[in-house]
Predict the structure.
Amino acid sequence: MAGQIKARTLKVPITNVYAKGDYCAQLNLGKPPQRVNLILDTGSSTLVVKQSAVKQNVENQSDVNQSLENHSAYRPEDDKLLTPTSLAQEVNYGIGGWDGPVITTRVAICEDKKTLDKQPHLHLPHQPLVLESCHLAIVSGAKQQQSFGDADGIFGLGYHHLNKSYDLKAYLDRHNYSPAVTYPWPFANTNAKNRSQSEANVKCAAKSNNQDSSTNNPKAEAPLSSEDLTQFKQFLWQQPERDLIPYFTDLEEHGLTANKFAFYCRRSSVHVSNDASTPQQLADDPLNQGWLILGDAEQHTEFYQGELNSIKVEHDIYYNVTLTSIRVGDQTPIAAAPLEEKYRKNYYSNAIVDTGASAIALTEPLYRAMLNDLAAISPKFAPLIAPFKDISAQQTGIDASALELSQWPDISFTFVGDMDVKKGTSTESPDRQEVSIVCKPESYWQLNAPSEGRACFKILSQLPNWPNQTLLGLPLLNDHLVIFDRSVHKTGVIRFAEASSEQDKKHKEKRQGR
């Protein structure tokens, strides 16, 4: 296929109205095509979708769906191309998670011509990207679907190491499931009696896996329940593991696009200029829109100005980078500690870049030092930030009239850079330059969020029991074109460029909340 189809670049419109600030792209699944809105997440690799039959908050979701082009979650029973497998997946996002079956079906992006935004200087024809048989996970239960808000699932843009599945064929054969497939999902029984029996079954699963099937009495066992994520994960870990090719990697390996993509956005919270706005009006607000560019994003010069600055990706698990310091205004840079040795085996570096995070989460020492430097600039700052020590404050915000953003400093994040191979500079140079990315007050404070006239502070302290690793989410990406170039070296680079002055002019008044 790679020899028959020329790799191309596709510009995909995205919006943040479904997932409380995180951005979604529309994909079509199956035949006939079913349109779904999936969160773009570089912190995971799985392509996963809800089932409409078990959708949460039906009344509210119905309103959103009717207003926004009547989309709905995936209906597997209507998909004529659905092919079950014996595989299952589970993912925990830190806050929320899911488990469920893996099927294969047709997956297409930018199949609807009306989603295409043509640029005169590119002369690009409308060419959707289509995989006729792609792995897709389906969330097993209604409660687990809350992880996605009003989005329909997640489009994981990470590397293949994060896309683990588990082959349950031997288990299903042993328990007389015929055919031995995970869809329809065999682990959905959730009554109290069977949940109790399920706990016992998980504990003995490893033992039974090593026994001859003739010695088992599957009819005597109540079915396992997947409702308890922690418990069911223990069961899955006892099954043969298999890495699946993530959707974007699959596109690249089929020769459909280059091994890089870009992300362009303006906000990390939904911009609410009027509390009476309908969902469609929110979606039509340019500040709530952005772009995912699959392929060679550098050609889209309408988005950026100046040079592209390259940050080295340290490991191809997450988009791991090395943060060397942060700097508040013109004050002395605050050094970022290396990742503690005990965490290196699983976390690899002291920072990751994550499009699926709507905030920046600093390590506790960096967060305290940042607050001290802000307080040194103005004693008025600390009381405004104080409410956001509680994550629930993101749901209420503070009175935006109390803020004077012109008084707040830029906050710069400095990273280990990567020499630009396009300029012929050796990437092995020991004096690799550092790269600083500026986060402006308009980005780390979000005006008109979560409602009209309110404001939210989007730099947080790390979660309890988390390693000393900074999570670099949307506030740092705002007002930049960010290119995840996985074609460079073995692990790739991340290139940042400032938003073009044309784009800045277009959105200046809205970005300031007017």
Observations:
- The CA atoms of residues 17 and 283 lie 6 Å apart.
